[in-house]
Amino acid sequence: MKKIVVVCLLLAIGALGAVNMQAQKFALIDMEYILKNIPAYEMANEQLNTISKRWQTEVEAVQQEAQNLYKTYQADLVFLSPEMKTKREADIVAKEQEAQELKRKYFGADGELYKKRESLIKPIQDEIYTAIKEIATTKGYAAVVDRASAMSIIFASPQIDVSNEVLAKLGYSK
How confident is the model at residue 173 (pLDDT cuts 50, 70, 90)? Predict the structure, then answer.
């Protein structure tokens, strides 16, 4: 008799859990789609590309200087005294280090490009996040998943995609 009561109790708890799981609402967004439809994001990306190309050209110029120093060193090698060889080698190494330092300064983990990207794009991302959060709270979504980064989503109904709602909330109606 005790076993039957315990089994019935467990089934009742399981049924309540299943009802709660079915009641949760989910939504999808496509972050790539949203970002492509925000002009400020496109302008920020263009600005970042321009800066990146300029800095890359600067780094390449210093690397080319190092290569030119090395070629000159190779051509003059037979005519150089040991002291001159040492000095030229040190100059080449210093120029190569300068190029590496410049590359790290601009493109490193905490480099200028990263900082510039943070200052230009993070406010846009924060604004999108706030809009998504407001929509999720208003409509009672338990979770909002980014379809662009969720590789495991094989199919999702277009009815649960709220990307256009996010754009409308941000003032970019589609």
Answer: confident
